[in-house]
Amino acid sequence: xxxxxxxxxxxxxxxxxxxxxxxxxxxxxxxxxxxxxxxxxxxxxxxxxxxxxxxxxxxxxxxxxxxxxxxxxxxxxxxxxxxxxxxxxxxxxxxxxxxxxxxxxxxxxxxxxxxxxxxxxxxxxxxxxxxxxxxxxxxxxxxxxxxxxxxxxxxxxxxxxxxxxxxxxxxxxxxxxxxxxxxxxxxxxxxxxxxxxxxxxxxxxxxxxxxxxxxxxxxxxxxxxxxxxxxxxxxxxxxxxxxxxxxxxxxxxxxxxxxxxxxxxxxxxxxxxxxxxxxxxxxxxxxx
Length: 288
Known about the structure:
Radius of gyration: 18 Å
C-alpha cells in the first residue's frame, strides 16, 4: 500500500496493476475515487464541490466507485458514508477497506481489492447482516464515471431462440426515444452529455460485463451472473444511469435473505486499457 493525497483527501491508498492505478479514499467511504491508465485522465467522476470534504450529516455523491445495497429505498440505501474508513493489507496482497457497520441499517460493508497484474484488479464487495433479525438485500456496485464517455452493454444474443431472453426495467423519468441511447443489435450504448436530463435502464446481462469508453481508455467490469434466482428491480443484474454530470455503470447480485451474522459476496474483475474512440455500435463491434 502507498499512502497518497488525492483531490484534497489526505488519507488515500494507491494500488497498482501494470499501467492501471487505483486511488481509494479512506477519509470517506470507502470509495475508489481515482482510476488512471498511464497518464490518462481520471476515469471516475469526482464532484468538484465535494472533493476533499467529509463529515456531512446526509449522504452525498462524492463520485468514484461505491458499494450500496439494493433494492433502492430511502433512508436505508442512503446511509451516509462520510466518515473515516480503514485499510488493511491481507496476507495475499489484497487490501480490505471498510467503515464498519452502518448505524442506521445494521449492515456491515467492505470492499477488498487485489492486483491481478496485466492492468486487472479483483474487487470483492461484502455485505453482512449485523442485525438480530433477517433482512433481504442484494449487493449493488456502482461506478460513477467521468463525463463525456460512452457506456457499452452487450445484448443477450441467442440466434433462432423461440422465447424472449431479455427483460428491461425502465424508470419513470426515462425517455425510450432519448438520443443518448443506441438500441443496437449486439450492444446497447449510452452516451453521457452535459446539460441533459436523467436517464436509467436495467436488464438481465447474461454476458456478465459492462464497459465505459472515455478519453482514449476503456474500463471493463466483469461479474458473475446466476440463473434461476431473483434479482432486484424486476430481474436486473446490470443498470446504466446518467445525468448532466456523470454516468453510473452498475452491477447487482441476487437478492439474498441473510440471518444475523450471514454475509454475501459480489465480485467484479476490473480492467482498463488505452483504446480508440468508441461512440457507435460499429466501434464497439471492432473493439469487443
